[in-house]
Amino acid sequence: MGAASSSFSELPTNDYLKKLAGTEPLSSIDPFWNQLLSFSFLSPISSADARLLEESTSSICKNLALNNCRTGNFGALVRNFLVRATELKASTQCDDNIFTWQTYNALFIIRSLCKYFVENLSEELILQQFDATNEPEGETEGSGSLTEELMNSLAELLVDVPVVSFTYALHLEALNTLLVLLSIQMYQPQAASNFFHYRCIMQGKCSIHACLLMKALLRNYINQEKCPAELFKASNNSSGMLYNITSSVASGIWNVVTLGMGGGAKKKEEECFNEALLSNQSILFILVLANHCTGERSLNNPYRQALYSFTNSQDESSNSNPTQAIATFKLDFSKLYDTLCITLKDDQTTLLLYLLLHRNAYMKAFILSRTNIDSLVMPILQILYHAQDRNSHHIYMALIILLILSEDDLFNKAIHDIVIKTVAWFKERTINEITLGGLLILVVIRTIQYNMTRMRDKYLHTNCLAALANMSSHFNNLHPYVAQRIVSLFAQLCKKHTRLIEQIRVAAIDGPQETLQENGIKALESDIDQDYVQDLAVLEEVIRMVLEIINSCLCSNILHNPNLVYSLLYQKELFTMFRTHPTFQDIIQNIDTVLSYFSSRLELNGQNLSPSEVLTTIKEGAVQFRKDRLKKFPELRFKYVEEESPEEFFIPYIWSLVFHSSHMYFNPARIMLFSLAVS
């Protein structure tokens, strides 16, 4: 870190940067640009180093912002980049590494300056920085908005320039620059359509590339390309791709191409480059593109449309007779599915899967047809199992994915046919030979119990129980431990119900009294009593759903669930307290009927039966049990429906992911879109 810090400290006194930010106007074709862009700049890929860089260059950025309206130097830099970017496709084909490196340098400086503008200026003033020019009128006439020209050029770069070892950093910087320009949303929270940058990308020249850009971004994600090995070799290694460049320049080039990692600590270097950075930035940009400008009729979002309608390049049936007259593209669903399965750990990948499942009917059908669906479900269950290490939004998205999957009957059947031999991450007890469906039930019940003790969120309860309810009629050959946990959940809810009833009874006897709350505000205990009543209503809804889930399983598949019957019999006294309760009476009747039938069968076989004998008796009795003795209830069917204004949830969430996961530094003191109280 010391080497990086000392390099950063030299930047404010760099003569070339001082000239760029100074009072002397520079033409876009001035020889100065070749000199500036041949200099070595450290481009950090960690937010900590990015912060050091910004602090080191803040005076340069401030001076340029003050002087640029007269000099137009920022616009000259952008135009210089645009010329280089236009020529770049040809240069990559002939392996012109130096030209690519200089183009990258130009874009890195542009991004750094844009970052300062976005965090410190209004959009109107940002546009003035772009539009300020000292060029002769003829040279800039007809070029349109320079902001739009830059954004369009970056989109074309991502689409047209192949990702190879010496263009990897350039692609990364193109994504970073676009994210920075659109990050204005973090600092000025209002409808995205109000911002020129968003209107530009949604309906300007950029929108022409919507399908190809979305395809390129998804391909970046699928390929999971790590930073090429050459990018973090020591700068004095002459065997790298730039070996033919003179040694006096080589060390500077290596510092640029290595994104500032050449002088960093080896451990940190390896950590950063083991990550597929281009894939990560591509997902973040997909999420930003697809979730803004979604509610305005006057502003179409072509990227969202492209993401929700692309089809499988390997499916011949989707290649003919299109039924939709919309722009789309084709992608290999198998490769996308495999990549989702192996990378489903972080928020952004989970959110991408959610969007594909919820909105792209082709991808949803493909996922649900997989015979190795366990490859997708297991990572989701791990996310839920480690809920204490996740943020609430991530837990919600994982649960919603399960809920969407549970809407499909074939999925609900298939998960009970897939046997998981061992589950190393499940620590409560050693489980061998459990079905995927059984493990799913265990993890969801555990999530409910975690929520009861920690989060106490009704919305989370609802999603958990809705998923279990959808699956309940397909519960099959439940593992003994799974059956125990279902009944244990009911027992835990019963205890909570008893405590709440007692608290309400005591409060009613004592009468209303004034009490001092933790925040120092005095309140009548009658207000607190009302909270008890509301808690009781929510709890009784949850208990009702658990009973309905048990009842659904018994009515649909009692023959293949002897372990559930065994567990119910073992704790049958739990159901006694609700026999006369108006909320549960009807559903308890069915469970009582089952318990009475099997209890009588056990009594006929004697008093001292072993567990195996009890189970045998249950299996024999289940064959003769008549289902018409049970009252019929409507089939449990829950369907996920997105909120009316989903952008209110997704936009702050997505930008918080950019803040935490993009390896860029955003000044938390200036962010207004979301709270950073808990980072």
What are the SSEs and their pairings?
Layout lengths: L1 H9 L4 H7 L10 H5 L10 H25 L1 H21 L3 H24 L2 H9 L5 H4 L5 H15 L7 H15 L1 H4 L8 H8 L6 H14 L23 H11 L8 H8 L3 H15 L10 H8 L1 E2 L17 E2 L1 H11 L3 H13 L1 H8 L5 H12 L6 H15 L2 H6 L4 E4 L9 E4 H20 L2 H15 L7 H31 L3 E3 L5 E3 H33 L4 H9 L14 H20 L6 H14 L22 H15 L18
Parallel strand pairs: 1-2
Antiparallel strand pairs: 3-4, 5-6
Helix pairs in contact: 1-4, 2-4, 4-6, 5-6, 5-9, 6-10, 9-10, 9-13, 10-16, 13-16, 13-17, 13-18, 16-17, 16-19, 16-31, 18-21, 19-20, 19-22, 21-22, 21-24, 22-25, 24-25, 24-26, 25-27, 26-27, 26-28, 27-29, 28-30, 29-30
Can you describe what's shown?
One of its GO terms (biological process) is Golgi organization. It comes from Acanthosepion pharaonis. Keywords: Lipoprotein, Myristate. The chain is mainly α and about 675 residues long. Among the domains are: about 1-160, no CATH class; about 370-630, no CATH class. Helix content is about 60%, strand content about 5%. The protein is built from 31 helices and six strands. The chain has helices spanning about 1-10, 15-20, 30-35, 45-70, 75-95, 95-120, 125-130, 135-140, 145-160, 170-180, 185, 195-205, 210-225, 245-255, 265-275, 275-290, 300-310, 335-345, 345-360, 360-370, 375-385, 390-405, 410-415, 435-455, 460-470, 480-510, 525-555, 560-570, 585-605, 610-625, 645-660; strands at about 310, 330, 420, 430-435, 515, 520-525. It has a two-stranded parallel sheet. α22 (about 390-405) packs parallel to α25 (about 460-470), α24 (about 435-455) runs antiparallel to α25 (about 460-470) and α27 (about 525-555) crosses α29. The chain is elongated, with a radius of gyration of 31 Å. The two termini are about 25 Å apart. The relative contact order is 0.07. Residues about 1-5 and about 235-270 have low confidence and may be disordered.
